[in-house]
Amino acid sequence: MSRRTASLSLAVALVLTLAYEAVPHARVPAGEPESADPFGAACRTRVTGSKVTVYCHNPYPEADRVSLHVECARWWDIDTDSSPVEAGPAQTVRLTGRCWKEVGDVWISHRRAS
User: Does domain 42-112 have CATH number 2.60.40.10?
Assistant: First the structure.
């Protein structure tokens, strides 16, 4: 009976982890009013072991400068911030980052191109 319970628990944990990775992340923080002119590339993040890959697609006519920020789980592992990459109208850009060991947190920042 305990093997079945352990297998079921592992299966549920795996499904929840995979479902979280496939969720798109919000482009505008909650609580901020939506502006009259839409802005911001939609980004999808995938963490595989110690590597992070992000694809950002900008459907709007104004360019978005996106940056990847990776916070590593280990205190001795170096966190990284990428240089801004311009995602022009109808353009998709790819950003990558990594840690030596586990990834703790990942986020993308957006800025209007000047």
Answer: yes
